[in-house]
Amino acid sequence: MEEKISSQDDNKGNGDEINIKEYKKRWIMLGLFTIYTGLSTFQWVEYSIISNIISRYYNVSSLAVDMTSMTYMFYYVILVVPGSYMAERIGLRWTAILGSFLVCIGSWIKIFSVSPNGFITTFIGQSFLAVTQVVILTVPGRLAALWFPSRQISTATSLGIFGNQLGVALGFWLTPILVKNHEKLEDIGADLLKLFWTIAALSTASFILVVIFFQDEPKLPPSETRKLQKINNLENKSGFIKPIKRLMTNKSYLILCNSYGLGVGVLNAVGTLLNQMFLIHFKNGEEDAGRLGLLIIVMGMFGSVIFGFILDKTHKFKETTVTVYFLTLLGQILFAVAMWIEIKSTVYLAATFLGFFLSGYLALGYEMCAEYTYPESESIATGILNIANNIYGIILVIISGKLMETNGDLAVHICLCVSLLFGFIMTILTKDEQKRQDAQKKVYINVSSTDRDISL
Q1: GO MF annotations for this entry (predicted)?
Q2: d(CA 368, CA 298)
Q3: Is 5 helix (H, G, I), strand (E, B) or coil?
Q4: 394 with 337: CB under 8 angstroms?
Q5: In the chain, how many H helices and how many E strands?
Q6: Tell me, what's the pLDDT at 452?
Q7: Which listed residue, 23, 37, 50, 451, has the most CB atoms within 10 A of its CB?
């Protein structure tokens, strides 16, 4: 069943009718995206959360293991511009097909890496998976704008990011359970092989479902803002370069890129180094480290959905973002203190608080990006936004890794807290711009004026 909403708008003065239609199958599109993006991000922390086991099995350094996580950030930075351009050209359906195909290929390659001298092969498979981020990270806001009505856009974006976070959470939780630190390397290899076969099978099924069921943008726009955006794009065919130039002169957007980049960069660093930080204080704590990662991400999933719901209801974008960022900084401080006093239950409580705000902040960044850059393309704007967090993520992982080797994990926590402090200050300095909401209000004003004229 489909719900059709029609309204009148002057449409540049010509009195044309604006036809808006809500499609129930929008939830199918969102569900399929959630599945294949989750399978990709599951493998982001697949090695780093059992860093000590992988380092021993493949006889490589901890930095080499960290690089399996950093590939997700590195490839995104170097490929996001051509990737975003391609996504704009091929449309949402083929973007989803390409993303799920790369997840499938990368997962199968890793099956052939199960031997002590197979690290290069596993790194190649990880590289294919890392490339998927180029066509995944720009999708949540774009899918929400193309398929969902205005009242659900923030919630849909949050649910799109939910799939990304769900994959990371399961990677944190299941990998240490499935891959044990056996004395014999052959037993570790057997555990890895079971894990890789399972993910490859699920990725193949996901790819088939996307090919069969995933659709491009619906014929009719689901919201007034999408209608106006389509009109604007038709009237101003400025290609790919001009939108980037406009974004590079948008001060609020540039500040957001840096504040959001620092926040998500800290999340990437925590996820990559969690195993190493935890084992400094708690021996044989691989599974506990995995559960902590699970807790951080799961709480962030709740946070993302709750914050998206709050934005849809209140439209208080800056107030919500500033509050969440401050509580994120506070959570990182509490997490550092909990690690230092070495009380495991306290560490779990601090991780709960930190995860709710640090991981939950992801959805807020996408929504602020949409407000600052409307009516620019969501894929271009979010693509550039994510360049910053991946650059900051790489820098923070490398710096934190070096600090841990030379000064211990306390120096790492100080570095991450200082990064969040700078991000919080920049968040305060941004203007409270709501371009997308303003466009929505104009539509309602025009509709109300037209209806009143007709009644008179």
Answers
A1: heme binding; heme transmembrane transporter activity
A2: 22
A3: strand
A4: no
A5: 17, 2
A6: 52
A7: 37
Please check whether residue 53 is in contact with residue 188, taking contact to mean a CB–CB distance below 8 angstroms.
Answer: yes
Beta bridge partners of 4: 21
CB-CB neighbours of 456 under 10 Å: 5
Give the per-residue pLDDT at 338: 94
As a whole number of angstroms, the distance between CA 129 and CA 136 comes to 11
- DSSP, collapsed to helix, strand or coil, labels residue 12 as coil
Least Cα distance to 133 among 308, 393, 375 occurs for 393
Amino acid in the structure at residue 27:
W
Mean pLDDT per segment of 10 residues, for the chain of length 456 residues? 42 51 83 90 90 93 89 86 78 88 95 94 94 80 80 77 82 91 92 95 95 84 68 55 84 90 91 89 87 89 82 83 94 94 93 90 81 77 83 91 88 94 92 70 53 50
Element (H, E) at 8: strand 2-8
Give the residue from 104, 125, 105, 101 showing the smallest Cα distance to 113: 125
Alpha-helix residue ranges (DSSP H) falling in 179-285: 185-213, 224-235, 241-248, 251-281
CB distance 358 to 269 below 8 Å: no
Give dist(CA 80, CA 87) in Å, integer: 10
What residue type is 127 in one-letter code?
S
Which residue in this structure is represented by tokens 């010509």?
Answer: 14
For residue 196, the tally of other CB atoms under 10 A from its CB is 22
- Count of other CB atoms within 10 angstroms of residue 70: 21
**φ/ψ bin of 282: left (φ > 0), alpha (ψ from -120 to 50), beta (otherwise):** beta
pLDDT of residue 205: 95
